[in-house]
């Protein structure tokens, strides 16, 4: 085999391997959903505070890390199941949030004990698109 043919065969093998690696990397980058908070510019959080024994306050907050003010719609839902039965609470509304600011959207209070099962869900929408969420829950 001539030196030219050997060089051509080796170069072709490397090109095939490199092309396959690039194709697979591109596929993985394209098909992988983004996760983690690094890419989020709108952050929804539920803050929980025990105000007195058995009484808890849940505050829905929204942080706008984008460069412009935006109008948001939120839904805050609480579900509780315990010895005394089942209860549900729903709150919703809108807020204009300036860039770099965090606002309290809503607050609710629940009487809870360690045997209660509960879940508090916050959903944030902008232009009818679901863009952020947070959930706190307890299952005994």
Describe the 3D structure.
The protein is 21% helix and 55% strand. It is built from 1 helix and 7 strands, in the order αβββββββ. The chain has one helix at residues 3-31, and strands at residues 42-52, 55-64, 70-82, 85-97, 102-111, 117-126, 129-138. The strands form 2 sheets. The protein has a 4-stranded antiparallel sheet with strand order 4-3-6-7, with no helix packed on it. A 3-stranded antiparallel sheet has the order 1-2-5, with no helix packed on it. The protein starts with a helix and ends with a strand.
Record the SSE blueprint.
Elements: H1 3-31, E1 42-52, E2 55-64, E3 70-82, E4 85-97, E5 102-111, E6 117-126, E7 129-138
Antiparallel strand pairs: 1-2, 2-5, 3-4, 3-6, 6-7
Order of helices and strands: HEEEEEEE
Radius of gyration: 26 Å
3D shape: extended
- How many helical stretches? 1
Kindly report the average pLDDT value. Answer: 82
Could you tell me how far the N terminus lies from the C terminus, measured between alpha carbons in angstroms?
74 Å
Overall number of strands: 7
Q: Please indicate the percent range of residues in DSSP E strands (runs of 2 or more).
A: over 45%
Show unreliable segments. Answer: 20-38
Give the domain tally.
Answer: 2
CATH class of the largest domain: Mainly Beta
Largest sheet: 4 strands, antiparallel
Write out key terms for the chains shown.
140 residues; alpha+beta; 4-stranded antiparallel sheet; 55% strand
In short:
With 140 residues, this protein is α+β, with helices and mostly antiparallel strands.
């Amino acid at each position: 085999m001539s030196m030219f043919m050997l060089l051509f065969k080796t170069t072709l093998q490397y090109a095939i391997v490199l092309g396959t690696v690039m194709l697979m990397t591109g596929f993985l980058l394209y098909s992988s959903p983004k996760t983690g908070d690094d890419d989020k510019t709108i952050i929804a959080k539920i803050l929980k505070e025990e105000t007195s024994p058995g009484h808890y306050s849940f505050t829905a907050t929204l942080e706008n890390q984008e460069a412009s003010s935006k109008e948001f719609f939120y839904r805050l839902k609480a579900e509780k199941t315990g010895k005394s039965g089942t209860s549900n609470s729903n709150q919703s509304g809108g807020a204009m949030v300036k860039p770099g600011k965090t606002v309290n959207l809503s607050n609710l209070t629940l009487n809870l004990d360690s045997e209660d099962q509960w879940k508090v869900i916050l959903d944030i929408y902008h232009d009818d698109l679901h863009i952020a969420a947070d959930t706190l829950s307890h299952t005994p």
